[in-house]
Amino acid sequence: MSFEPRRLLPLITSHPGGRSAVTCEYRCGNACAHPEPNASENEYFGDVVKDLLSRRGALKAGAVLAAAAGGFAALSGTAAAEPADVAAAGHGKPGRPGRPVPGTDFEAVPPNKLDAVTIPEGYDQRVVIRWGDAVEAGAPKFDFAKQTAAAQAKQFGYNCDFVGLIPQDPLGIRNLLVVNHEYTTEVHMFPADQYDPANPTEEQVKIAWAAHGLSVVQTFRDPIGGALHVTPSRYNRRITLNTPFEVRGPAAGSKFLKTSADPSGRKVLGTQNNCAGGVTPWGTVLSGEENVNQYFANADKVTDPVASARLKRYGFSGTATTRKWERYDKRWDLAQEPNEANRFGWVVEIDPNDPNSTPVKHTALGRFKHEAANVKITKDGRVAVYSGDDERFEYIYKFVSKGKYKPGDSAHARRHNSALLDEGTLYVGRFTGDSPAAEIDGTGKLPADGEFDGVGEWIPLASGTKSFVDGFTAEEIYVFTRQAADKVQPTKMDRPEDIQPNPVNGRIYAALTNNSQRGPAGKANVDEANPRPNNRNGHILEWDEEGGDAASTKFSWRLLLVCGDPKTADTYFGGFPKDQVSPISCPDNVAFDRHGNLWISTDGNALGANDGLFSVPVDGPERGHVKQFLSVPVGAECCGPVVTDHLVLVAVQHPGEDAPSSANPTSHWPDGGATQPRPSIVSVWKKGRWGQVGRIGVK
């Protein structure tokens, strides 16, 4: 029987930041249309400083800001430790045009609206794997009109995001490719005459469960042609919403995690809304569970005021969900299983090298909308993990382990190092500007010292069973991290997303995607770390831990980029001439090449062009020279990325998602013709033999 599809979404085609209405609904539960969950009334430190400046004058406030007076390098102490060639090149100085630095020697791709992955001249590309392609043995050929849950559980999942590449040989010929599947968009996953958004079938719901999670596949890189191919392998594996996970760390067994299906509070089925992630030094993958609130129904029926406030702080609201999963499993119904929601929003870890291993949810890293989790080893051999809470006015966090890292990627080393994430100290970040409040006026004009910069500190929340927050037990801090963090006055940021340490200069870089709500009455005002009101284009933050040590509780910071149209006054490109950079908007995921260049993928370009991947040197005369390396198809977001000497990988997420349904697709990528769009992983390489001639960015 056929029927006319029901009304899908309000008749708006895009939301703030350039995303489509469909993306907003299915990806984050239309968060931009709702008040941000962080309604805390505590003064954050930027407001305290401004108050001091206005009430007591700059001389008295100077005592508060004395730590910032020395600037970026003075606190960190890294200037003297820099390699001579970096220091001579002008670390942190305003850029001057010159020869491209290694890794960025390509002709920039111009902004466009093409339904294609557009790459520089002299490069080639290939789709590595698509939604529905085989992962596990026995997977049938993908058939858009005849899907089953059993098939999807063996096939590549939907809406790929994080991409990790783990070498299995010294030359990088064989690798394990690990990919997150962030969310499902059911109105695009099924033929329009088969899917009724108001009444999905049980099989369709189970297909969506199987399309979440992660995929692991072994790949072979053609040493002559350059292409990356998926190969049948014992390593190939799908992790879905039906895969058992072990809960570890200080909140394992918590009363807040116990449900009727799991009275132990130590075993959860599945992972969902996995956004960015990271490959650990020991060869596993960390993945952040992000917008999990949208999957749970009937928050309005939770009457206990404490439980209701906790749900509200994490964005749980309303009655029925968009996907209607609660009709087929009570765990998605908060009225029946109020603790099930607390079992998501964690950093998860999988071991791609062991296809029989049980994935883990690490509670010591806190529970919030994790965008990512990336590791840096401290000077004394411990493990630091950085993660952002991706929502307007949320915070940046760091975890430092108690135990020490064991080098290597053997099975023993992997088990030892994974266990390090179960005990340590969880911190939240406070970023303080070093300029008078009057100089941060929202126009984008740099303060008198020539940069948006300052100092910061990591505020401890909990360590093991010890709480550092009045009124909260350690158990409550791990499970309700947002509310605990509110109490200690961290800095409200503009959607902190991917955070990664630079392997060359040692600094940490964070993408702050956007925040269209900063500045209006009743909202947090601009501060030096978030200097722009109605921030639709986002910015890139970098910081240097004191002494270059990830275990430090103090740091110095500055903004590398204030993104947007280079022709506008409120943009900044590390001091590099604005007439020579590519326009960039809404930075999301970040990565580094071996030269230490930052690579940025974007989500929701607010400048009217497709999203893409950009390179930018972070030191020397070319610091801030943004160049677009590729663009993705119509309606798509650029995710990943992975950048090696010979290969660039990106995840093309939700191509064509600006269409209201599959009835009239706006994209036919990657297969062309009249086909439906399919989220996919793409590899790009320089034409020619893959040796010196074929290196990315090297002519």
Automatic annotation (TrEMBL):
PROSITE patterns, per database record: TAT
Highest taxon of the lineage: Bacteria
Region (Disordered): 86-108, 514-541, 656-680
InterPro entries per record: PhoX (IPR008557), TAT_signal (IPR006311)
SUPFAM superfamilies per the UniProt record, alphabetical: Calcium-dependent phosphotriesterase
Protein name: Phosphatase
Source species: Amycolatopsis regifaucium
